[in-house]
Amino acid sequence: MAISFYKYQGTGNDFVMVDNRKRNFPAEDEALVKHLCDRRKGIGADGLILLQDHPDYDFEMVYYNADGRVGSMCGNGARCTVRFARQLGVIEDVACFLAADGEHQANVERDLIQLKMNDVKSVERIGEDYYLNTGSPHYVRFVEGVEALDVYAEGRAIRYNERFKEVGTNVNFVQRLSDSEIYVRTYERGVEDETLSCGTGVTACALVAGLQGMQSPVNVKVLGGELQVAFEQVEDGSFKYIYLIGPAKQVFSGTVPLQQV
Ligand SMILES: N[C@H](CCC[C@H](N)C(=O)O)C(=O)O
Predict the structure, then answer these.
(1) 124-245: what CATH class?
(2) Annotated binding site: which residue ranges?
(3) Cellular component terms, GO, for this chain's entry (predicted)?
C-alpha cells in the first residue's frame, strides 16, 4: 500500500494534502501523520490536511498539526484546500466547506483565494497584549524591531506559561509598518516552532490593529510573503465579514510506500 499526496503552500505555511474522499487514509495513526510531516525523515510540512466528502458541503477539511494531533482551524491550510478542491474538480470558483470551527465560504480569483473566517465575538486584554480566537487561539503582542526578535524563545515562553501550558496557544509578534500595513511573525503550537506564515494568526493581528484604529483592509507582511485581511468592526468590539486573502499553490505530488513508515 502507498499513500498518494500533494504538497501545498500558502505564503510559506506548507501542508501535506491528501484526497481522502475514499476514506482510505489511516487518520487515527498520530505517529504516521507526524512522520509524514517530518522534514528529515518524511515529506516535511507544518501540517497535514485531508479533503473529504461531506453530505451538506462541497467538502470537509480535516487539519492535523505537524505533531500528528488534530488541530483547530488553519487559515493558510484552508486556502490551500480550496485550491486543491478546485484542481480536483470538486468545486469551480466558489466553495462552501466545513472545517474544525464550522462553515466557511471561499472564492478563487486567479492566484488569490479569499477565505471567509468566522465572526470574532470578543478580544481579551492581557496586560499590554491581546488574546482572541479566530478559529485557533492567538496571543498577540505588539513589538518594535520584529525582524530581530527571537520568536522561538519569546513565543515558547508564552505558549508554556501557567495559563497556556495545558492546551497551548499560538503566539504572534506584530509591528506596525504604516497606516495600513503590519509585519507578523508567529510561533505555532502543534508545530512548536516559528512558521513562515499563520493565516489565523495574521487575521488575529489585523483585527487587533483594527481595534487600535487601522482601517480595513490591512496588508500583512510575513516571512513567507504578503496577505490581506478585510473585516467589519462592530461597535461592541466584535468583528464580522472577516476575509483572509492570499495565494495558495501546489508544489509537488508523490507517493509514500506505507511499509517504509
Ligand atoms: N497555520 C495555521 C494555524 C494552525 C493552528 C494550529 N497551530 C493550532 O493552534 O492548532 C493557520 O494558517 O491558521
Answers:
(1) alpha beta
(2) 13, 65, 75-76, 170, 188-189, 199-200
(3) cytosol
